[in-house]
Structure formats: C-alpha cells, structure tokens
Design goal:
InterPro entries: TerB-like. By secondary structure, the chain is mostly helical. It contains 6 helices and no strands.
Amino acid sequence: MFADQLTEEQRQVVFDLAANLAAADNDVSDEEIQYLKDFSVAYGIEFDLDKSELDINDALSKLDTKKARVITLQELIKLSYKDGHFGKEEQDKVFLLAQKMGLNNTDLLMRIEAWVRQGFDWVYEGEQMLNEE
C-alpha cells in the first residue's frame, strides 16, 4: 500500500479527508465504511467518521511533499470508487482538494484516476478468474 510511505501524521490527514469525502454525497456506503475501518486498523488511527469540523487547509499543510499529495489523492479516489462509481460530488471535492494542494494539473489527476481504476479492474479480473469453474 502506498500509504505506508506517509508519516503517521500524513496518514491521519488521509483518513480525515477520506471520512470527510465519504460524507460528500450524504450517503456513506458500507464499502466506504469498510475502507475507512481497514485504513484505521492498518495504521492505528481512531475510527471517527465525524470530520465536519475538519480544517481542510490545516490538514493539507501537513502534506508537504508531492509524493504525499499524490498518494493522498490516490487514496481519496480509491475510496470514491468503493461504492461502485466516482460520483460528481466526490469528483468535485477531490479536484478542489487537488487544487488546494497545488496539483491542479488535469493530466496528473487523470493519470491518478486511471491508476486507481486499473487497480480495481485488476482485482475484479482476478476474482472473476478465480471464481470460474
């Protein structure tokens, strides 16, 4: 997992932003909750979904390298795909966060989104192959 390359503080930021993003469409799916639970367990982060008071700018300031910002966007897009689609509200929020991070390069965002989608396709393809009789 690429989040292994982040500091503990940066992983907390990823979790906080992800919980905030999951609520963007006012419908946190079971898959999104499971993703957040898995992330919190993997990194010893308190599982708290109420991030309505999150200071986004303060959180983003902790992502002090391009690598940390790209990994964060990758995790946020991965979360967004968990409910089966990267919805308009989620896209808008991810793109706004990318802009605030100084990553308003459309080509880079499209590459990150394609990277995540290919990962999901890879997992799906493997599951299908393993389930064939």
